[in-house]
Specification:
The protein has 3 helices and no strands.
Length: 85
């Protein structure tokens, strides 16, 4: 974790404690990460695939859930290993 990450985390926690994130528009509704271009393309593609299926996440087999989680971890590992600008 960098110094900037630490500062950002402390500010976020302070804002949460003060209720700055309470009653925001869209609160309680799921995020549409297939349209979030800050997410890696692999995550967006995996999310779109999940949305296209009519099966809810809790009905996935354990093996499918593990494969999806491994993909998420791999993507996060790649993001962390890339040099930041």
């Amino acid at each position: 974790m960098t110094v900037f990450d630490d500062i950002a985390e402390r500010r976020i926690q302070a804002a949460q404690g003060e209720g700055e994130f309470d009653n925001l528009p869209g609160m309680g509704r799921p995020l549409v990460i297939s349209e979030d271009f800050s997410m890696p393309i692999e995550v967006r593609m995996a999310h779109r695939r999940l949305l296209r299926t009519t099966i809810e996440k809790d009905r996935f087999s354990l093996a499918e859930q593990l494969r999806f989680r491994k993909l998420q971890l791999l993507i996060e590992k790649r993001r962390r290993s890339q040099p930041s600008c």
